[in-house]
Amino acid sequence: MPSPDSTSSQRAANRARVVRALRERGAQSRRELTEIGLSRSTVKSVVEELIDAGTVTEYADAKAARGTGRPPALVGLKGDLGVAVGVEIANGVVRAAVCDTAQQLLTHDSVPTDDHTPPQETLKTVGTLIDQMLDRLSLTRQEVIGVGIAVPGPIQRRTGLNGRATTLKPWVNVNAHVTAAEALRLPLLVDNDANFGALAELTWGAARGLRDVAYVYTASGIGVGFILNGSLYAGANGTAGELGHTTIDENGEVCECGGRGCLNTLANADSISQKLWRSHGDRLSIADVIKMAQLGDVGCRRVIADAGRHIGLAAANMYNLLDPELIILGGNLAPAGDILLGPLRESMARRAIHAGEVLPPFVVGELSEHVVVVLGAAAAVLRDADAFPLPGRPSLSGRTSTTVRARRP
Ligand SMILES: [Zn+2]
């Protein structure tokens, strides 16, 4: 016979396991919850305890309700247990978002920045932005579970320093985690933008329910966030997914990483715009180029198609090595849609090994470039129960929240 103490500690451990699963995978059915290794009857009683304690609530499963009678209920964390903040420090802009524990986006905002600003100054801007958003939601810093911060480029796992390939030059060789922790005085984690983009599409978008996905994020450079076997894959040194620094032309231009003919020198936003200087002047942003291409400008369509072919070549090599079931395009080239994706898919199909299999779909992500990374940064905090415990019982009731509706039109 187990002692009453061991029984109650076992129940507490089971409650923690269920909460952890709900934080990692969002709302799910009781049957899905048995996949964490608990019996149906244990899941049922643990969920009842958590509902009584005000930690968990039932949500209707709209998808399962279609064509059936009564919708089976999903079980998920209540939204009032705390908030996670996501921040993206990018070239020219700082973005931020606040999500609650029910994975709802509460608010998001952005501030333009100068690429030459020292990290400490940029982080002051970030701190102000976070406080303004919390103010708008009538929340305090005590209710923040943690902050996820995205920086462009790889972060070396061993030293925590931003690598030299980081496109935001004042951040090269800076330990973003230490610097941000000192500036913000909030619990936080730091990762690169593409990894968070992948996590956002896994939580809310095109990668939901999938296990092997490559998320190609196009910003100042081109990076990939890999979900492999259901988890983010960063590599031994944290530099996995630097697709923008794979060689496309051995005799090409020298890249900021020191390499020659990297994908970034041929297909990132700056290199696309620069190809139009002679014909269109030097004031075109990548958004302008895409807009003009959609209106039929031949030169703009040509440079986007060329970029698509180069990305397709790099993507074929990536596919041959990792065999993802889906490849998602996000970031500032995503609005180009089929003008980019048509030549991209063709170029990829010419080079990818088929092995009798159909190539994985290469699709535009479901989350817009303005929120995908900050949502992923918040999701990283919500999912990490070890590093970011829920902050007790804050008084967050009475707020209104919106579902994540960041989808493209
Ligand atoms: Zn490079």
TrEMBL record:
Organism: Acrocarpospora phusangensis
Family, as annotated: Belongs to the ROK (NagC/XylR) family.
Protein name: Transcriptional regulator
Highest taxon of the lineage: Bacteria
InterPro entries: ATPase_NBD, ROK, WH-like_DNA-bd_sf, WH_DNA-bd_sf
